[in-house]
Fold these 3 entries.
Entry 1:
Amino acid sequence: MAKLITKSAAGWIFLALSFVGMSCSFAAEEVSVTDEPLHVNTYQVGFSNSVRAQQGSFDQYGAYHAYPDGSSSWALTSNLNGSYRLSQKWEIDGGLSFRKSGSTFPTGDTNSFSYGSPLVDMKYHAGGWAHLVLHAGASPGWSYKKSHSDGNPSASLSDDFGDGQFQGAAAHLGVGASRSIKRFRLAFDTTTILPFQTRVTPLDGPPDGPSYSSHQGNRFQISEGLGYTLTDQWGINGGFKQMWGLDSTTEGADNVGTAGRLFTTRVGATYNASPAWRWMAAFETSEPFYNYAVNQSYSPAVSVGLTYAGI
């Protein structure tokens, strides 16, 4: 079983809980139990932060490998997102993400900063008894990353912190459904992420050296959520998310053993400070589906956010 969160990671969790910064997710937009508008609004702007404490990883066979004693790894992701209601049926969303990560291992320390590609998403509210939302969008793949490593370069980690997020150029298609019944709100969403093929130049080669084609495997995500309104101001919610990723390819050949799989649990709460302002907090973990992950990290996360809905 995974080790307890290190003191360093716990400090970042406290930092994430104590302030809200700008940002938006690398992942595709989806319908959730917190999507219900605060009031009839034309636009919404959201700010959030999440911190992940990475404690180990699952290999291609699903076997878990905990990090050595004294090691720590964390990632702080800030998100800025917004939406604008074009009409009763059509809505456009967009977002941008920033990530600061670091690790300490016996082989050396690493740290990096990156921002993800802008995400643009169009939603069509089809309505119906179970309110249907069709959404489609794309990310052009513009991104920036700066990293530094002290000691053995093998200490460097990828930016995959087990959150199912995809960084890079991709298109996505999905459909969601939500329904409010008295104090309960249910939501379901399924999304397909289709990465674009890219040309890659080896890091140890010259900038104008030979390159090769690389294609990340398609990803499929499903989420289920349930919310409950306690009072006019307070609400609680929870849910599950599943992600499956196919093998990546290099020059058209499958990279066998690179397919990924993840199943997470999420619990949270919301507070409506006024008709226009909403605070949100949540905790996400792969428990109790700990043995389901493949080619993913084990990294519980805490997140906080703020949404403003304007007339």
Entry 2:
Amino acid sequence: MIFKDATRLVIPVEVELKCLAERQRDYPWPKPERCPRCQQCRVWGHGFVAVFFDGIPAAVYLKRFRCPSCRCVIRLRPKGYFRRFQASIACIYESLSRRIGYGSYLPGISRSRQRHWLRALQRQVAAYLGEGFRCRLLEGFLILAQRGRVPVASNLPF
């Protein structure tokens, strides 16, 4: 049996964050048809996990499922957000675009957080796309995101 990588265990779904914040655990989450790891047809509810998103003052609860066959935990996450990030992909891209294009940061988001995104993007682009992309960071962001990588993640696999 071939297992897919662990990144597939977070499934992005269409979610209205405002509605999720209001309904919390009563939000009508879609149930995955099968386990993304072992393709078993049966998954069970496995509770919720509290997470924070920018623009929402309190934690919201994301639904989890568990596969009884391979015992993996599947977590649903709103589309438009990278794993482990509170800011939306659009917000991160806008911040980087403004910094790279105009030399200033977005107001309302801490400068240190935006600097973190830029430095992480520079490392990811250099590691995965090569030094030729050093002057084309925004293009590198889009390419890495299309490849399923988080272009502003601080961790590298080496």
Entry 3:
Amino acid sequence: MDQSKLPGATPLWSPRIGFNWNVSGDRRTQVRGGSGIFTGRIPFVWFGNVISNPGANPNLYPTGPQRPTGSSSDSSSLQQSFDVNAMAQNFKWPQVWTSDLAIDHQLPWGLLGTLELVYAKDLNAIVMRNADLKQLQGTLAAPDGRPFFGGCTFAAADCPFGGTTFGSELTPNFGGGIYVIDNTSKGHSINVTAQLRKNFASGLSASLGYSFTDARNALKSTEIASVLWQNEPVKGDPNNPELGPSEFGQRHRIIGSATYSKAWSPTFKTHIGAFVEVAEGNSFAGAGGNRYSFLYSGDVNGDGQGGNDLIYIPRTQSEIEFDACASGCGSNTTPQQQWDAFNAFIAQDGYLSSHRGHIAERFGESNPWYSNVDLRILQDFTVGGETRHTFQLSVDVLNFLNMLNSSWGVRKVASAAATSPLKLVRFDTTNPLAPVPVFNFTGPATTFIDDPSLLSRWRMQIGLRYIFN
């Protein structure tokens, strides 16, 4: 592998077809849709990482002594990178095949109904693999049974498969890993939307819609290329991550809107609008906030990376082993106290309690349902005779319910301690061919806390604009 060579130019075709059919000829029923391939791009910083993180590659790192990077009094010098990033030579831009089918129909009472289905299949999605990862060394004891790749930082007596302290890398001199950006066809999404709309003679317009989304892929998005692998939550082979729910998108979403306009006189007109949203999952931000993975603190699968192993959710106390806890566990110091606290933690969480006996999914946990109401008022003032001037005063109130009551409109998010509730302290190697991870429970009593962001607070904006006639 030579990361000094980037993939060459490869033609990518994006054929598309669409249609719009007026079924009855009077536009009472209209069927529309299409299908096609859509091409995107990856963050260009991932390309840059291939060059900026060369590791020990002799094709990129200069030979000879280290070169000073500052003045003679500055001891800084050019250093080798902590890891290696490369791209598969046949790497292709991300592509997805998307198909859409919708029907619009005039219903009784002046209602316009829409039903729409969108399905997307990944053709060239992104995946990161570590070419420096050791081969499988064995598997942990049932019922977990996940693969183990050899990394162990505990004392020799507490390390599985041979009882020695060793690493997970084939070539440890790299100090990190040999991370290769590649393509995968894993991943798909489906979205179903139903909507009703109506315009009233009184000047009122209203709509109500419901949307269901199920999106699955094999990638956790991040900024730095190597972290695509290091932070990928996994329960099996980290170089072949399983499909899991996407961190983006809300599974269930109900939205409603209403606007009303009233002209009091030729010079005085009022517009009132409201937008209502009731949804599951919160709004995704750059640092997350929509869906979560339950992860161990520590390297349970021995891939050399801690904090990326999805937890096994035990059905009974016999399926997990705890050690006495000296610190960081609150009042839960004995193994029995920790099991009692962890069992109660599982019981209070809807996702965990319904998935006992399984390894948690990547981004399997979703934020609870929330509600939000936004309000907008526009007031038009028109002055003048032959030459008329119109001024419009606008008042926007976001999260209007929170302005009425401080406990309304407050969203929930999972705390960091809740999504990493178990700390790996050693391996029980009584049976050397079926080692058992041993933990401390360091989590809280509940998963979710109030979201302190602006999404849970009401905000107001006042504006004034001049409308040219």
